[in-house]
Amino acid sequence: MSSIGTLARSTIRARLLPISFANSRRFASTLPLTIKPSITELSAGRLGERNLEKAIRSLHEDDLIVVSDVIPHAHLDQLNAKMVSDARTLQARGKDMPFNYNVGNIQQDPPPVKEYFESSIFLNPIASQITTSMLGPKPKWTFCSGNSAMPPASVSPPQRQPVHADADFAHPTHPFALVVNVPLIQFTPGNGSTEVWLGTHTGELSGLQIQEGAHGERASGRIQKPLLEQRRRARGPSQPVIEKGSIVIRDLRLWHAGMPNTTQDVRVMLAMIHFAPWYRNPMRLELAEDLKPTINAQYDLQVPVNWVRREEAEARYLNRGFGNSYDFNQTV
C-alpha cells in the first residue's frame, strides 16, 4: 500500500470525526473579561502595560474584550437620539429596510457628518491602541455601521438571530480583523444584548466548513446546529450586560447572535472594523467633507475615504445594504 493512499484515507477519516473542542479551556467563564481603566489611563488615552496585556490575552483566548467607562455619556446621548430617529425611518420601509436575518434587527449607518462625529466614539485612542497591538501598526478602518435591535411590534414579534460568524468567506486562521462595537445605551438581556460564544474564533471552530449559507445571502454564516450543541457542552454562550460608555472589541470570526429587544427603547450598537495593515480589503468609508480635518489629524489608523459633499452624505447614508451584503474578504 502506498504512503499516499494511507495519508488520503487518514485525512478522510479525520474529516468525518466530530469536532473535539479539545482546545477549550476547562471551566472557562462564559462571560467576557471587562477592564476598567484608571484615571491616569483615561487621561492619557492609553492603557498601561498590565491592562493592555489583559486585553490582548483576552482577544487571543476568548476573542472579545470589554473596556468600560471610556466614552463620555453626553457624546453617546447626542448620537443615540439621532440614530433612534433614523432607525424609525428605516423601520417604516417595511420589508425594504436593511434588516439582518429578521426585521427586528436593522443594519444602520451613523450620520457621517461633523456634528455627530465624536472622536471619543469613532476614533477612540484606547480602542486603536488595542487593535494596533493585536493587528500591527496603523490598522485599516474601512467599515463603519451599526445595528439596531427594535422594540417588538405587531409586524415583527421578538426574534433572535441564528448563531453565526461575520467571517462568511475563506479567511486567514490568524487575527486579521477586529470589530469595535460601541453600545449607545446600557446593554442588557432585556433590550437585546448580543449573545456571544467566547473562544470560537480559531481552529476547528472557525471556517466555512462549519457554516451554512453562501456569502452575500441574508442568512449566511450560520453555524451548523449539531456543532452548537457540542460547543454548548464545552463552553456555552452568554448575554452579558455592557455598561454605557464601554467599548467592546471582538474578533470578526466570533460566533454570536443578535437577540430580541423586549423593551420599548431602540437599542443601537455601532460596529467599526479595523483590518490588519496587510489585509487587502478594498472597502472605503464614505464621509462628508467637513470631517476631513478630524480624519487627517489622527495618526493611529489608515482611513481610506471617499469624500463627498455634506448634502450628498446626508442623502445617502441611510441607503446602505444589510450586513451580509458587505464583502469583508480581501483581494488576491
TrEMBL record:
Q: What is the superkingdom listed in this entry's lineage? A: Eukaryota
Concerning Gene3D superfamilies, the annotation shows: q2cbj1_9rhob like domain
Q: Which SUPFAM superfamilies match?
A: Clavaminate synthase-like
Pfam families given in the database record: PhyH
Please state what the protein is called: Phytanoyl-CoA dioxygenase
